[in-house]
Specification:
heterotrimer, A mainly alpha, B alpha/beta, C mainly alpha, A: mainly alpha, two-stranded antiparallel ribbon, 16 helices, globular, C: mainly alpha, ABC transporter involved in vitamin B12 uptake, BtuC, 2 strands, about 70% helix
């Protein structure tokens, strides 16, 4: 049972990880993350990198949709912007990869803010539809601005370079992707200890009241779009380095829906939700494949794997919305509460 | 003395018994990212069956130098990232030497990895012009003509049938569709044909009436469709025929499967196109492999089946030649062995002996749909492009 | 010299296509009007109707008229089922959550169709006359023409229904003020179910027409995205708006397709959407929503 968590300073009260047990668990997690690439197979490393990239994009979307209440179906398109930026920079000038990732995030940020301008005129669902339009317009640009983006054929990206060592295997990519993911998630968690984060939450709850309280809506809404797009841009850049081929078809609308599903299933408005949701939704197809492998008539049933995967995806969204609207994060919190209050009941 | 002889006999027998399976264990692995579900499923299922059958034929005959072929595959639903994941899984758990990839996107994405690993020769369902480049894609090839070559074959036929004809191309707004348009323009100029119009349809569009109007206005003698499987070709064909247009319609590889063309119904009568293989029921000439296929599978097998079958045949042939030359199975050696294929008899799947100089086989024949007989009939000789 | 005949033909094709958009838009507006749900799965509901028709006409071999009726009834039934299972539990939740439910629904429907009928493209049996229709000198594709006729008749009947039928009045009452409707003795949950059933039936008709023009496939639902533009332009809760919006979007698509090129079609549609959102977010005929604290 959790006792004796009195705080004596504001600083201690606001800390992200306030109890000893939390810090210990965090160290364990860090150790696991560090040891994982040495014991995991190539395939599991590949999955881990993919989960990390999705975590970054989902966290960005959660900032925009979960914390600020602006529904966006354009996250994948902004990832595409980041990916193309990184691809072009790496191909033309071979600049260091960290710089490229920052540039990718920055360009995506600017583009995101441009498409965020309509958010002032329209709310809620209209905004979601505007972001769908943004998705299509960006896809058009990707496919037709052939001079820069290589048109429908897309671009191939040379691997990232660290002091001459090419990061081209899953093992090496892991060390590039996962630390960046950890940093960005910590950044997002910290964001909500600041004034800006609280302003976002105020806007989500009642934006007119927030304006009355003195929060300039235009500035903060655009900022939210910008930050979310920055995250998307970085995730897109990492995607480009990982898959090493960027085409207009790489970032379809269904990917934006996937990220929205991640945060719904994980829990909108929580950082833990983005992580859990992204990991869960990325690994569900793998779990399904396993289950299908166990079925008695495996060969014939394999044909049905893809449609069942689509149905499960939709069913997860619907199921979580109806039965557990606060997502996996809420389930996790319930488990934690049980252990905190034990032997008393919740 | 007798005891010693008996002992020696048993020990040798035991030794042989243990040694024999150890030798046969060294299988050659053919991996596949196969689109068995999803939008390309009709092709994927056929390709899968084709590869399986050919591997069975080879293994039944004893394999390559006593080594059997093992075919391992994963379903990708035609999604490039799932395809890449399947590749990594299969190469992680087996020593793969030959691979079948399901799409152009996959082939392009995996190319740097192929070069880095250097142990695999890859072919696939992609006939993209870009991949037909031995410098950029040194360990890949395709079992047929690339899309530009296919259009080239169609144009050659047109130029022979009607010199100076007006030609139009209708293609889809995708990488697949846009692939051969450059070649279309160049070849038309070279062969003295007039380009009546070029029409691009947005992907997933339902109504193509405006495009039909444009096509009608251009009154071409021949209209080539590329970048589609079926829709919206029947719309174009029906509406133009109903409007009294005399244009002849032609399609490229993925449209030309027998069942796809037959779905066009009455309007599809006279639809022509390029096909590098003989159809399943084609008995116009001796074709021992087709005979075998007909024996193994009594019902109609699609052209994707033949594509998978032939690709497996060429992959295995490359492995055979590499092993016969005593060389190890590396990507470079396999590709070199593939390129040594000259005047190779495919058992009748392609009607002429083939030579693989680069990454493709630029050979094809024009077939026409005969709706009354419910068959695709050949209307030209085998056209070589080199 | 502008080719007036070309312009006329293209415009007619645009109007014809627009009629289809209007029909699908009608199904969307019905749902939004009564239940305030933005149904992103409208394209998939269209698809289900078309596949039911395929099952009845091609797989079971029923005569076309019976197959159409069967498809419409089956589709209406599934619409009611969807409302009961998915929308009813979300009554009172934020509109964004309900929107996401329809997103999930679209995936479920696509998966279901792929599971039962496979992922290949299918052709519907021909049941519409194939001779091109001549309007003056301009030729119009027959399917477009008859599709437009069907759309026009259906929209007109729905407009009349809303005006004079008791159920239509109940629908309009529920749409404008739910609490007052309850107070007046209108069975609001029944109205909800009825709306979804009706909308699904209309979507089925649209789906059959769309399916017979091009082909059936599990990816048919992408049609729904263009319909979204139509209802935004026309106004989310206006039937007349769906008609006008549909025609407008159809014309814009036809003109861009012909004079600019096929790749600009979607761009033009979505630019129109963004413009309307910036200038007149509630559409041409939609009701201006006043946010009350």
């Amino acid at each position: 049972m959790r006792i004796g968590t009195a705080k004596e300073t504001y600083f201690a009260d606001e800390a992200l990880f306030d109890t000893r047990t939390q810090r210990v668990w965090l160290l364990v997690l860090a150790a696991l993350l560090a040891v994982f690439p040495f014991v995991a197979s190539q395939y599991w490393l590949y999955l881990a990198c993919l989960v990390a990239i999705n975590v970054i994009a989902a966290t960005g979307l959660n900032i925009l949709t979960g914390y600020t209440g602006l529904v966006s179906l354009g996250q994948a398109a902004f990832m595409g912007v980041g990916a193309y930026t990184v691809a072009v920079l790496e191909r033309r000038w071979g600049t260091p990869f960290l710089l490229n990732l920052l540039a990718g995030g920055a360009v995506a940020m600017v583009v995101g803010m441009v498409f965020g301008v309509p958010s002032l005129r329209v709310k809620g669902l209209y905004l979601a539809i505007a972001t769908i339009a943004a998705s299509f317009i960006l896809h058009f640009i990707f496919a037709n601005w052939t001079a820069v983006t290589g048109g429908t054929a897309g671009l191939t990206v040379p691997p990232a370079n660290v002091f001459g060592l090419p990061l081209d295997s899953e093992f090496r990519s892991y060390w590039m992707i996962v630390p960046i993911a950890v940093l960005m998630v910590l950044g997002a968690a910290n964001l909500f200890r600041t004034r800006i984060g609280r302003a976002f939450i105020a806007i989500r709850d009642r934006d007119i009241s927030a304006e009355v309280l003195g929060i300039p809506l235009l500035r903060y809404k655009l900022l939210s779009f910008g930050i979310a797009s920055f995250y998307a841009g970085v995730a897109g850049g990492l995607w480009a380095y990982f898959f090493r081929s960027v085409t207009p078809e790489s970032f379809p609308l269904i990917m934006s829906i996937f990220f929205l599903a991640c945060i719904i299933v994980g829990g909108m408005g929580t950082i833990l939700g983005s992580i859990l949701g992204a990991a869960f939704m990325t690994l569900v197809p793998e779990a399904l494949k396993l289950v299908f492998g166990w079925l008695p008539n495996a060969e014939a049933m394999a044909v049905h794997l893809a449609p069942v995967r689509t149905m499960v995806f939709g069913a997860l969204i619907v199921g979580f919305l109806i039965f557990e609207p606060h997502g996996l994060a809420e389930m996790w919190r319930r488990v934690r509460r049980f252990f905190h209050l034990w032997p008393f009941r919740t | 003395m007798r005891v010693v002889k008996w002992l020696v006999g048993t020990v040798t027998a035991a030794g042989l018994a243990l040694a024999a399976p150890a030798q046969a264990q060294e299988e050659i692995v053919l991996g596949g990212s196969i689109p068995m579900t999803g939008v390309f499923a009709f092709a994927g299922v056929g390709i899968h069956a084709g590869i399986q059958d050919y591997v069975k034929i080879v293994n039944d005959a004893g394999g390559i130098k006593g080594r059997k072929i093992r075919y391992v595959f994963e379903d990708t639903a035609y999604k490039p990232d799932v395809s890449v994941a399947a590749f990594k899984k299969l190469t992680g758990s087996h020593k793969v030497s030959l691979y079948y990839g399901d799409s152009t996107a996959f082939s392009k994405t995996i190319n740097p990895e192929l070069e880095r690993m250097g142990t695999i020769l890859m072919a696939g369902a992609s006939f993209a012009t870009e991949i037909n480049n031995p410098q950029k894609y040194p360990m890949q090839f395709m079992a047929g003509p690339d899309y530009s070559e296919q259009i080239g074959i169609l144009l050659r036929y047109i130029a022979k049938e009607k010199p100076g004809a007006r030609v139009a191309i209708v293609y889809s707004d995708s990488e697949f569709g846009r692939d051969p348009v450059e070649e279309f323009r160049e070849q038309s100029k070279k062969l003295g044909l007039t380009v009546a119009t070029e029409i691009m349809t947005p992907p997933g569009s339902v109504d193509v009436s405006t495009e039909v109007i444009k096509l009608r206005r251009a009154s071409p003698d021949y209209t080539i469709f590329h970048g589609y499987v079926l829709a919206p070709i029947p719309q174009f064909v029906q509406q133009l025929k109903a409007a009294g247009s005399q244009t002849k319609f032609m399609g490229s590889f993925w449209t030309m499967d027998h069942s796809t063309v037959m779905k066009m119904g009455e309007a599809g009568d006279g639809f022509m196109g390029v096909m590098p293989y003989r159809y399943y029921y084609d008995d116009s000439a001796k074709a021992p492999m087709l005979e075998k296929i007909r024996q193994m599978r009594p019902e109609y097998q699609s052209t994707p089946y033949l594509q998978g079958f032939l690709t497996a045949m060429l992959l295995v042939e490359a492995a055979k030649r590499t092993l016969e030359a005593g060389k190890p199975l590396t990507g470079k050696n396999l590709k070199a062995a593939l390129n040594s294929i000259k005047d190779f008899d495919t058992g009748g799947i392609i009607g002429v002996p083939i030579t693989i100089k680069g990454n493709s086989i630029p050979v094809g024949r024009i077939y026409r749909a005969d709706m009354k007989a419910q068959k695709m009939v050949p209307v030209s000789d085998w056209i070589h492009l080199d | 010299m502008i080719d007036w005949l070309l312009f006329l033909e293209v415009s007619l094709a645009g109007i014809g296509g627009g009629g289809l958009y209007a029909l699908a838009g009608l199904a969307f507006v019905l749902i939004y009007k009564a239940t305030r749900v933005v149904n992103l799965a409208i394209g998939e509901m269209l698809m289900i109707g078309a596949y039911f028709f395929f099952a009845a006409a091609s797989e079971l071999g029923w005569p076309v008229g019976l197959a159409i009726v069967a498809a419409v009834v089956a589709s209406g039934f599934s619409g009611g089922l969807i409302e009961r299972l998915l929308i009813r539990p979300m009554l009172g939740e934020s509109p964004i959550s309900v929107f996401m439910i329809t997103v999930g629904l679209s995936s479920i429907l696509v998966g279901l169709v792929e599971l039962v009928w496979g992922a290949d493209q299918l052709r519907l049996p021909e049941f519409m006359p194939t001779n091109p229709v001549l309007i003056g000198e301009a030729m119009v594709a027959p399917k477009i023409f008859y599709g437009f006729l069907v759309a026009a008749v259906l929209i007109a009947s729905v407009l009349i229904l809303f005006r004079y039928w008791r159920g239509g009045v109940a629908l309009r009452a529920t749409a404008s003020d739910r609490a007052a409707a309850y107070a007046m003795g209108i069975d609001v949950p029944r109205v909800f179910s009825l709306t979804w059933v009706l909308a699904a039936a209309v979507a089925a008709v649209a789906g059959i027409v769309v399916g017979s023009i091009s082909s059936l496939s599990p990816t048919m639902g992408i049609f729904g995205l263009s319909v979204l533009v139509v209802v935004i332009v026309g106004g989310l809760d206006s039937v007349l708006g769906a008609l006008v919006g549909g025609l407008l979007v159809g014309l814009v698509e036809a003109w861009t397709g012909t004079y600019l090129g096929g790749e600009y079609k979607m761009l033009a549609t979505f630019t129109l959407l963004v413009l309307v959102l910036m200038i007149r977010p509630y559409g041409l005929f939609g009701t201006h929503e006043i946010e009350r604290l």
